[in-house]
Fold each of these.
Amino acid sequence: MKIAIASGKGGTGKTTLSTNLAAYISETISNDSNGQVVLVDLDVEEPNSGLFIKGDILKDEYKYRATPVWDSNKCTLCGECKTICNFNAIAQLPNTILIFSELCHSCFACSELCPEQALPMVDKRMGVLKHYQQAGNLPNNDKLTFIESRLDIGEISAVPLIKQTIEYVEDNFSDEIIKIFDSPPGTSCPVIETIKDADFVILVTEPTPFGLHDLKLAVETVKELGREFAIVINRYGIGDNGVEQYCLENNIQIIGKIPNMRQAASLYSQGELLYDKIPAIKEQLVLIYQAINRINR
Amino acid sequence: MKNKEIVVISGKGGTGKTSVTASLAFLAGNEAVIADCDVDAADMHLLLMPDLAHSEEFFSGQTASINNALCTNCGLCQSICRFKAISNSNDNYVINKIDCEGCGYCARICPSGAIKMEDSHTGSLHISNSRMNNTLVHAELQIAAENSGKLVTKVRQEAKRIAKETNTEYIIIDGSPGIGCPVVASITGTSFVVIVTEPTVSGYHDLSRISELVKKFNIKMGCVINKSDLNTQLTYQIKEFLISNNIELLTELPYDNVFTKAITAGKTVVEYATKSVIETNLAKCWDKIKIGVQ
């Protein structure tokens, strides 16, 4: 089961919920010999889950995407490639073909349609995937696996790395295992890549006009993708009741309300998990996990 | 007069980027044109409460569509699509619009000419008069549309055009979180980057990644440490990081629920918390930015 934890607005608590929920679930299933939970940080531009969840590294691998490279010996400068490319990633000068690999979407059209095979596709590094086992801050915890991908600075598209990371997770873990995807913020391509095949999406918001405005966009996005979803309100108690009003009017389920506490902000600032130190937060995780189990059935 | 573009970014979301930008917009008044380039989650208009003066639709990129009357079901398109955007249901080939990246490969090779590429409507652009005596250029990304940075670039172009026409010196840009396309599109060619951070392990981590990106563009940077009393030890470490990376410390702001209260009241924090240390510090911050950008 794939659970994506997303939000429109950044900084509403996606990573806080993802890491605490994953650690809490791993603790509750500790007596179940087959139990396992996988936390996957797909906010590859700014991955933060690893600051809260530590573990022993099992695998560390570079991820690549294919982009064309110009072979000047074969090229006849016919200019076909430049016409084909829909992303303006190829330019032609009198004696040269220039390739802007950061604009390339790796569609292979230029390479496969070049009459002279002068544009072979070559792998280019875009980031690194790390796979940790026995993660979590609990002693002898072998129930929690943590996977993180990190986009190289200067690479501008997160989508291919997110795609390959999800493929890695699907290849290595069976369908019934609970997988928690810590999503990037926003509502565009990287988020869509993260949530489009999720079984359940939890949208984390905060009870402020900013939170509400961005939540509405996120809800429309999730609906467009036809995903099942529910809301968690973080920093509950500050701001106003606009988010609750909106959920009520639109028949959207709120499955948790994480209280606003300076203690939580302070522990978070140090890279600490919260549920094992603040009972009021653990109570909310219990409710959220119950809601997940209802969906999973 | 040459216009000076100042962009506010954060790497991590939720550090107070929009609260700071809106405050700068208020302090600048008619000295600046404001551009909300966080088009995924554009919130500035909630505080600037603008009168909409002009709106236009924005198209970028393309999407494929198959005319099943012409299609001979040869399946070539499906075999070459790298995005798995073409599937076959009940002997009809269909394009999944969400997965299609608009490369046009399928349309180009379809032997029966059954596939055509259509321009995608990816958003709308608005130009408004804000209640702060300045112009706000903002945009809305279409639901589930791609954000390649083109709409961001368009917002900046419009802001620049208006600044030129009205002889306005500064352009204040609210950027988006992350280090990818929309961020690169918001910082390329600007005169000064303001990074809003917070003393949390994630705030510091994201500050180091975003500043490394900005360095590649060789743009002057300044930093606002928000919630600086939340973790004084980390605040100290961040300050050392700023010194060693040649980033100017613009100001520090306290951890205070007044930021949320201001947003809830539809006001910028400088208007809401008048005569507070927050107001004083943000005013000094704006002065430092104006010096830094020269």
Amino acid sequence: MSLRTDSPLIEPDVIARVLAKGRSTGAEFSEIYVEDKRSTSAGLDDGKVEQVTSGRDRGAGIRVIAGDTTGFAHTSDLSERGLLAAAEAAAAAAKQGDGGVHTIALQPIFRHPVNTIVQFPDTVAKARKVELLQRADIAARGVHGAIVQVSAGYGDSIKQILIANSDGIFSADEQVRTLMRVSVIANGDAGMQTGYNSLGHTIGFEIFDENDVEELAIRAAQQAITKLQARPAPSGAMQVVIKQGSGGVLFHEACGHGLEADLVGKGSSVYRGKMGELVASPLVTVIDDGTMAGEWGAIGVDDEGHASQKNTLIENGVLTDYMWDYIRARKEGRKQSGNGRRQSYADLPMVRMTNTFVTNGSENPDDIIRATDHGVYIAKLGGGQVDTASGDFVFGMVEAYLIENGEITEPLREGNLIGNGPQVLKDIDLMGNDFAMGGPGTCGKDGQGVPVGDGCPTLRVKSMTIGGTAA
Amino acid sequence: MSTTVDDLQAIADRVVAQAGAGEQIEAYVSRGGETAIRIYEGELEHFASAQSEGVGIRVIKDGRTGFAYAGTLDPAAIAEVLADARDNVSFGTPDEFAGLAIPDGVAQIPQKFWDEELAGYPTDQKIALTKELEKLTLGMDERVRVDEANYDDGWGEVAVATTTGIRESGRGNSCYVSVSTLADDEEETQTGFGFSVGDSPKEFNLQKAAREAAERATRLLGAIKPPSKRTTVILDPYVTSQFISILSSTLNGENVAKGRSFFAERMGDQVADPRFTLVDDPTNPLAYTATDIDGEGLAARRNVLIENGVLKKFVHSSYSARRMNTVSTGNATRGGFAGSPGVGCLAMQLVPGTHTQEELIASVDDGVLIQMVSGLHSGVNPVSGDFSTGASGMLISNGTIGAPVREFTIASTLQRMLLDIVAIGGDVDWLPSRAHGMSLVIRDVTMSGT
């Protein structure tokens, strides 16, 4: 058990009065979300530790729902007076008439820790955090004389959250995150190239017992050096082999967003009305799992107080479920799936992914490359973007190579790939047996960013469009 | 700034007054609020109102910098922030160029940032106009559905003070409406969007927002994936704005100083077509991101960065300027109280040409009008210059618009695209972005499809 305190951020009797105030204009549901987050970050650039930053974000968001209307207000004033004022503002926004007096009976506090924290980052001296940056700088510069610039960042945060609602839900979670990233620039005859690598888990400072900072930096530097020799990426449709790990971004974009019940409910997902249908190659099983210990999207409870859980979305190619938050689940008369998330107390929750991944197939990854005559091997994916209504999506290749006659040959310059989600899922024709999770990600939706994880084994898509410039 | 915010200024002053010997302190204090309204199928889907406040404190001593912030103006918390920032100083590497801005005597150019009508605009009218926007959009075309219609406004007050003599405060407010559309045709759905910006809601052009949102979605119905080839692209004003915004990091003096810009050794060179003149001008009140001071409290000013295709100037904060032995161009950026200043362009503008988009289309034998791009964050690398984005739009042949196309990419390099510009439109659109937009014609771009 990693919790250091059991005392809630706000006393239960205060919460009950705030929730009752939220329902005072006739709303059938009121909710309070309280957050207290402390963070430390440090940045090194150009050989210097530029700045260490300490941050404190603390406040509460009050949500009131009446019919199909949601009222929301937030405040950084956590006194009872401040909370009642916010509840009144939220209630006024969702006014349905006179709601009378409500008594809210909260359940005992619920916790569902999924991550084990060994060394809380706020117990670690800042000097040790800064030292990591200097080690990364030295390691990256040592890789090759062509490395001309290194920037490294360290960040940790401890976020206490409390969620209570008028249905009696009363949940708390402590979310710890520790992260490190390294960006490198190499300069060669054909201009500059970049390398990037990051490491992040929902654990404490012990992350650096299990992961080597030098190795992280060296990988970033090697990526930049390799790309100095890169030729322009091809253009047009070809076979694409995607390496284990960061390749999970493909599924985040190709189907993850499209399986969010709010988008489905509004008819803005290409996967609407497809439940029970074959929407992907039978090789594809997609899971979203908020309980995956240590992974970047792992949470004890979601931001609506519901326990995180493991949800199978696509099983052997068949669509089995969407992801759900409170509003969408209530509308459909079903259970939530632990996917109601928000960026901070200042934001409304909505349906979000946690850790989204594809499970293992049976192929040896080397055999997948050998089976490919002419194509592109993507060793590291960048971010992506999707239009869920049409299904068209892109993702970036930050480290990629040509495959010629079953062998990886020349490195390629950066670019996007584009495809249509349902088509690409059907075009997956080989699935490896080397599953791995990728690095820490931030998923953006409607202006809010939340931490997510992605993963997959090495796999092949028989045709995708590469957005390069070469013929 | 023109209006002062006395209580915030007093908080900032009190922090700065605590500076010890040899210590530079900057306090940035802000408070703001926002309203977000969303309409769906004629009903209020959500109404969010919010207020926030906070303080960010930067301390510099012996060339080392520390920073801390908190999302509250509670006096005890402010004391803790100052203590944290001081503690953080000891971990920095001494940097002879570290330091705060020093007043440089450049006068601010007064502008209007606060609109009384917006400040007093009734909530029920905000809801009503958002419903009207949804209704107008639905009325444009029977194939169109509205995914969401939104009204957003915000206000902010800020004060900054430093031990070097900067002391500025002011306030501003703004509002906009936006609508996202879906257009259906049998099994196919395409998306569009439209928006309108104004000092107050009475300046909104709901009709234009509705029409653009409907057209963007319906125009793409029946779109095909085009064959791969090199072609000429016409970027729609919204896309041009995104393209211009990317250039900010290449013109950023800190990136130049640290070897992160491909323009580093190119001062005075012809880096773009002679038709291309790029200025950064936050003093132009038409710019959405217009301001009278930068993120360090120096006067914002007009800077010509590329003139007739020749690289003329990089933008600087006081730090990057000291590093490069020059003076600040008033281009410190700041992301609110939780961040310390960076460097960047504030309000980018191209000197427009004279042609309408129709005339530009008529001048292209074989090309594609790019209506939307995607994946700018994943396929564009401003360090190497590699440029590759997803795209959708309309084919152009013999000077006329042809079939809609989607699920393709356009690719080149930023360096080449600047030199390959063949025309700049006169159709300036002051978008809610740090760069305005207009039609831009670029030749020899690779379109990658089937």
